[in-house]
Amino acid sequence: MVQGTQLERLEHMKDLGVIFDSELNFEQHCKEKINIAYSYLGIIKRNFIHLDKDAFVMLYRSLA
Question: What is the pLDDT of residues 6-46, one digit of tens each?
Fold first, then answer.
């Protein structure tokens, strides 16, 4: 309680763009970033079928 107000317990909280849990771990944050990276890879893979390695890396870095 803070000044008579009951505080809400949160499982996850986002602060400065980083997701922390109640144990101050950021596993959920890592999972979210990995999912975003996989979605970018999927977009590139579906739309740019015949890319060489250098072009693929350049395109991926431009999205991330």
Answer: 988 888 888 898 998 888 888 899 999 999 999 999 988 89
Question: Is residue 29, in this structure, part of any structural domain at all?
Answer: yes
Write out the residue range of the structural domain in which residue 26 sits: 12-63
Secondary structure of the chain in the HEC alphabet? CECCECCCCCCEEEECCEEEECCCCCHHHHHHHHHHHHHHHHHHHHHCCCCCHHHHHHHHHHHC
pLDDT of residue 33: 92
How many domains does one find in the chain?
1
- Nearest-angstrom CA–CA distance, 13 and 22: 8
